[in-house]
Amino acid sequence: MGQEYFINDRSVSMERFEVFRQALLSLSQPVGDIFDDHRVTKAEVYPLFDFNQDGRHAIEDTKSITKIDRGVLRNLNTLFEKHGFEPVIGPRENFSDFFRPIDEEVKRMFWELSIDAMHARGFHFPPDMEKDVWAFEEGLKHYLDIEFPRRFYSFKTAHALLQSHYELNPTDERPVALLFYPKWDWNGTFERSGIAETIVRSNKFRVYYREISTDVEALRILEEVTRHGQRKVHTWVSAAHGAKPVQILSFAGEIFFGIDVFLLGPLIFLAGHPILSEGHFIDISDFHSGQIDLKRFLVPGGQVFLYSCSNGKGGEDADNLANAVVQVSPKGTRIYSSRVIGNIRSLTVQDDLALKVEWSEGEPYNPIKGLQPF
Fold first, then answer.
1. Which of helix, strand or coil describes residue 357?
2. H or E segment and range at residue 7
3. Ordered domains of the chain (ranges, CATH)
4. Is the backbone of residue 228 left (phi > 0), alpha (psi -120 to 50) or beta?
5. DSSP per-residue codes, 332-348
6. Cα 356 versus chain centre, distance
7. Radius of gyration over every alpha carbon of the chain, rounded to an integer in angstroms
8. How large is the greatest C-alpha to C-alpha distance in the chain, in angstroms?
9. What number of H helices and E strands is found in the chain?
10. Secondary structure letter of residue 87 according to DSSP
11. Residue 8 — φ and ψ, nearest 5°?
């Protein structure tokens, strides 16, 4: 009689078992925060497969595994937690990305364990979100009124953003961080950065996340979150694709990157071609005109992170977005911006709440209101 294989005490074919085995071993790929050097290694994962016939630990010879049950998955979650990671979610892998290559039965078991683990930590979500991973993503889109739930990687971050969105913890007196993200992203940059994850996991802020498509929405949300300036923001992150004087919030046509955007009346032009109304951008005119006056919305000594290409191009002598922002900010406000096209390599929230931003290209431009000549 040939070798028998079992999944959840059910006898299965060798071929079906191999699909499970490979899916589970794939979970030993790097997991953790997007800017974290910690890794779970195969040497740690293999001993969890403790179900070979003669009782020996299957440390290297994973082919000797003949049985997989919920104990393996539970032990794997425990291993992740030992490293301080959220169960099952890893870097560059959002909720559905992580589950997609896994067999349906393993998906179901992992999802149930993940929800159990979140409940044990006191994280609860609307019942319609807890059905499966795809319902969870759809629920985030619905309850947060967003298009890109894949910009978050962990249950903890999703829970924190829902809590703040609906003001479910009125006693939370941590400084406010407001994250503006665009409803347009041509290359998935903002699904890979981990900015929201890093700021939430610092546990230093009450974090509000909004996706916007116009500068009018930006002003409305600033008014809403700050209660018309009564509860001021400490850290404002404004993320979008951009250029020297502008951040692009929404777009519906072909775009030519590497060419400076310039303004002419109510239209934005790229390479001489009108593409969108100025309202689909946050640009220098929003600040020069007084439409967005950050003195009303930011605390003195706060910070603005312009997470965009080239908003600091030309430095302090240029008519760039960073200088437009610093002019309407309260004293002591630090602006973080890039002089060139590129992304960030890392982001750290320091003990004094200041951000440490490492850009992938070029030197940063970080003016501070009160230390500039304007």
1. strand
2. strand 5-7
3. 5-129 (no CATH), 173-365 (3.40.50)
4. left
5. T-EEEEESSS--EEEEE
6. 17
7. 24
8. 85
9. 12, 17
10. T
11. 50, 45
DSSP for residue 47: G
SS3 209: strand
Question: What distance in Å separates the CA atoms of residue 282 and residue 332, rounded to the nearest whole number?
Answer: 22
- Collect all residues with Cβ–Cβ distance below 8 Å to 71 and sequence separation of at least 6: 50, 51
- pLDDT per residue of the chain (374 residues) written in tens, 0 to 9: 467 766 666 676 777 666 666 655 554 443 333 223 334 454 555 455 443 333 333 334 445 556 666 666 566 556 555 554 444 333 445 656 655 555 676 677 777 777 777 787 788 899 999 998 889 989 999 999 999 988 887 788 899 999 999 999 989 999 999 999 998 887 788 887 788 889 998 999 999 999 999 999 999 999 999 999 999 999 999 999 888 998 988 864 444 343 344 443 344 444 444 445 557 889 899 999 999 999 999 999 999 999 999 999 999 989 999 999 999 999 999 999 999 988 888 899 999 999 999 998 888 999 998 765 54
Vertex 33: Cα angle to 132 and 188 (nearest 5)? 70
Q: Which helix (H) or strand (E) holds 84?
A: none
Tokens of 272: 């001489």
Cα 364 to Cα 349: distance, rounded to the nearest angstrom: 17
Q: If DSSP codes are grouped into helix, strand and coil, which group holds residue 73?
A: helix
Residue ranges in the chain assigned as alpha helix (H): 14-26, 42-45, 70-82, 95-99, 104-120, 133-144, 155-165, 189-192, 195-201, 215-225, 284-288, 321-327
